[in-house]
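Hi support team,

I submitted a single chain yesterday and got back a structure, but I'm not sure I'm reading the token output correctly. Could someone confirm the output below corresponds to the sequence I sent? I've pasted both exactly as they appear in my results page.

Thanks,
R.
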Amino acid sequence: MKQTSILAHESIKPSKEVLYSKIIAGMRKIKNGTFREIATASNLPEQQVWKRLSEMKSKKMISDTGEKKQCQVSHRLCGIWKINN
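Hi R., thanks for writing in. Yes, this is the structure output for that exact sequence:
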């Protein structure tokens, strides 16, 4: 991994829990959604959301439903995420 990537990751560590909370709050509004839908519901930039989803999955906060939905922007299939109970 590049040193700049490591430094960037370290710089956001203190704010990750805040981002996780905002993402969960956004997901509560929409129940399930793609990273773009979650970003919109959370009032966060898309890149902040998609970068956190795998971390949140590892922490067992959220799960991939296994469902796919065509993205309105890229027209590619996107995974749908849900909050774990």
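A quick pointer for reading it: The chain is about 55% helix and 20% strand. Let us know if anything else looks off.

Best,
Support desk
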